[in-house]
Design goal:
homodimer, about 190 residues, four-stranded antiparallel β-sheet, 8 strands
């Protein structure tokens, strides 16, 4: 797990052995089983999660129905909105698969930034990257039909289509489950030539 | 204009006179007239824009038609995605109104971070805040009907409804212009009691 983390970080900066040891000392790795709820709607938390293995899902409950808004897989970070809003969380975060995550929290972050100031630059760059990635995803969502959204998902995150239940995927794409079934059938059918 | 900027920054940290002067010396304020295009699709840029006065709009051209994806008004920042992707921009940024913006660019950012390291912390916090704000906006968009989206806009950004043309607003809300007209009429009509 450490190797995966350090390989990821090395894309941004070369860490010294001292810096690597500092991260390992923090004891931030947590194994969480499939189905485990990391955050409940209504709760408050200061913990954020960086996925090393597995898949996390954010969902709201609207009129008694789950509405999935995002999935996070390997090397993606989910910082619950409530950390910034200081309000109780509006959504749940649960494990779609057995997962290994790095749990971040402000006291550990502060400690790392003090001992290892370059880490703050790294966090800023990662957040800026994430902001752009999310903006492109939102723009694409707005500019696409349901079928186009599903096609784009097959191109950009093909693993997700295999890993998560179809009704969660439909909700995530803003499509009714029966519409997603129709789209999938249409795309599977060889086109008349 | 400076006062507005410093009032905004003071919500996050108290600036010394030296730090304020450093920002003013950078000569980052730019006045841009209504209709001016700050970024063309297909171009590359390293400039980001922080709106002090006025309104900027991001839009794509899809099948010859403008698709508005976002508006930025006072004290909002737009960092074009192409700064991070290193690809030509997929969208345009234009002024909906006569505007005053602060133009950021990497060399000035680097200079400020070196002279004034706390500014990097400030930028990280602002980016984290923006990430959460955008995530909530996207989640709300996914979980809402067109009418709900318009109602939410009236609540959260009532000024926008007055400031931008209705066809741009419709596109921004992911609604056809004729549907938005119907929604507006329905909401204006006093409900039968």
């Amino acid at each position: 797990m450490e190797d995966q983390l350090f390989a990821f970080l090395s894309k941004y900066m070369t860490l010294t052995e001292g810096e690597k040891n500092l991260i390992l000392e923090l004891d931030v790795f947590r194994t969480v089983p499939k189905g485990h709820v990391l955050l409940e709607a209504g709760d408050r938390t200061e913990e954020s999660f960086f996925v090393l293995k597995g898949c996390l899902r954010c969902y709201y409950i609207v009129d008694g129905e789950e509405r999935t808004t995002s999935f996070y897989t390997e090397l993606e970070n989910v910082s619950p909105a409530c950390i910034v809003t200081k309000e109780p969380s509006a959504y749940y975060i649960a494990c779609v698969e057995d997962s290994v995550v790095i749990v971040g929290e402000p006291s550990k972050e502060k400690y790392v930034f003090e001992k290892f100031p370059r880490f703050e630059t790294l966090c800023r760059l990662l957040t800026e990257e994430l902001l752009v990635k999310n903006q492109i995803t939102f723009d694409t969502f707005k500019n696409s039909s349901p079928e186009e959204r599903y096609r784009q998902l097959l191109e950009t995150r093909p693993d997700l289509v295999q890993r998560v239940p179809q009704h969660q995927l439909a909700s995530f794409l803003g499509i009714k489950p029966e519409s997603l079934s129709r789209i999938r059938k249409r795309l599977l059918k060889p086109s008349a030539s």
